[in-house]
Amino acid sequence: MSLRKTRTAVNKPGSSIPAGNLNNVSEVTGSSSSKITFRPRKLRKVSSDPIIVITASSPSLSTKSAVDVALLHLKSSDELLGALITTHNDPPVFESANPPFLSLARSIIYQQLATKAAKCIYDRFISLFDGGESGVLPESVISLSAVDLRKIGVSGRKASYLHDLADKYKSGVLSDELVLKMSDEELIDRLTLVKGIGVWTVHMFMIFSLHRPDVLPVGDLGVRKGVKDLYGLKDLPGPLQMEQLCEKWRPYRSVGSWCMWRLIEARKTK
C-alpha cells in the first residue's frame, strides 16, 4: 500500500511510499483541507473487548494483535469494507516510533514536496544536529537561523514554521509529554496553533505517529474517494456524510481510512 501526504494547502502528487509513515502519507490525494469544515470527535473506549483498552494516550495500533482486532471489527460491522479487507489481505503496519517533536518537524519539511526531494532535504536537516535524529530538539532547532535552513533547501516559510514549532515547545505550550496525553480534540486545537500545521497534518500525525485508532480524516481526498467508491456514491462525500457513513467503523476509523487509501491505490495500478 502506498500512502501519501498534504497539509491545509494542496500537495503535489509524488512517488510511492511505504504505509505507516506520517510524513509520506498522502501526496497522491491532493487534499484541500483548508476548504473543509472539520468536526473533531473525541476518542471512545472499547468497553466490550478486554484485549485492548483505547485511551487518548495509548497507541493501540502499535501491535499486530491490535490491528487484527480492528480488522475483525471492521469486517463484522461493514460488509462492503469486510469484503475489501478479505480481498486485499495486506493489513496495515503502524511502525513509526519517533518522538512527537521530531515527527512534527519532519512533517513540516515534507510538505508539498515529492518524496525523493523531501527526503534529501530532511537528510541534510538531520546532518545539522549532533546525534542525528536524536539531536533534533526544540532548543537545537531554535539555534539554527533561517539562513542555515535555506542553505540545505528548507524554504524561508518552512523555516518560520520549524521555529514556531520549537518556540511553542520552549514556551511550554507544547511538549512531547503533553502531546502523548492529549485527547484527539485537544491535539487538533493545540497543534493547529503552530504555523504550517493544519487539521489534515494533525490527523495524519495522530494515525501514523501516535497510532490513535479512531481518527477519520474527513478532508483527505484519498479517503473521500475510497468511501465514494466503496459505497457507490455519485459524488465525493462531504465531512458530515463521511462521519455518517463511517460511523459503523468506530472505534477503528483510522484502520478504515487506511483501507480507503489501499482501495484507491490498488485501482490506480490496474
TrEMBL record:
It comes from the Eukaryota. Residues 1-23 are annotated as: Disordered. Pfam families: HhH-GPD (PF00730). The keyword DNA repair applies. Keywords: DNA damage, DNA repair. InterPro entries: Alkylbase_DNA_Glycosylase/TA, DNA_glycosylase, HhH-GPD_domain. Gene3D superfamilies: 1.10.1670.40, Hypothetical protein, domain 2. This is DNA-3-methyladenine glycosylase 1-like. It comes from Camelina sativa (False flax). The gene is LOC104780915.
